[in-house]
Amino acid sequence: MEGTQAQFDDFEDVAAQSATTGSSTTVEVLVRGGPTGDTVDQLAAAAERCPQATITGPQFGQAQITFESLPVDDLGDGSALLSYTTVVTLPDGTQVTVPALIGAVQDADRLLILMNLETSALGAGPAPGAAPVDPAAFADPLAQAYEAQAEALD
Asked: What top-level branch of life does the organism fall under (predicted)?
């Protein structure tokens, strides 16, 4: 898995920022001049290729990940939005739920990634399931981030 992910030094330019509000963290990454060609297509097809996965490890027990493609405006040269929810069953039988969204927009040789992760369940101990991230509310900041980079760099 690690070998399939591009490293930041594979790109000519990388810019990133994050913001945390309460227990929700949003990360924006903009890369240029690297292996971005089919990222949006891969993300758009991810839920169809693998709607659910199960991972087991001695450190965390078992994790079930559910993927869902979501509607997104037609942005740049291509855009995709995916929700994924991870439910970890810890060795003691308790469960932790971590909902997340990831959006991507290809714009010429630039790739914008916007990700939101609800971290309330990642505290000191297991917590009840977190409320899912609102995809409709997340589509707006994805479009705004795309517009901001396009205006600044075109």
From this structure: Bacteria
Q: Report the C-alpha gap between 142 and 78 in whole angstroms.
A: 13
Angle at 151 (CA atoms; ends 7, 37), nearest 5 degrees: 35
Strand intervals (E) in 1-154: 13-21, 24-32, 52-57, 61-70, 78-89, 95-107, 110-118
Side-chain-facing half-sphere of 151: CA atoms under 13 Å: 6
Q: What is the pLDDT of residues 38-76, one digit of tens each?
A: 888 888 888 888 899 898 877 777 889 999 999 999 999
Residue type, 122: L
Distance of alpha carbon 60 from the chain centroid: 21
pTM of the entire structure? 0.79
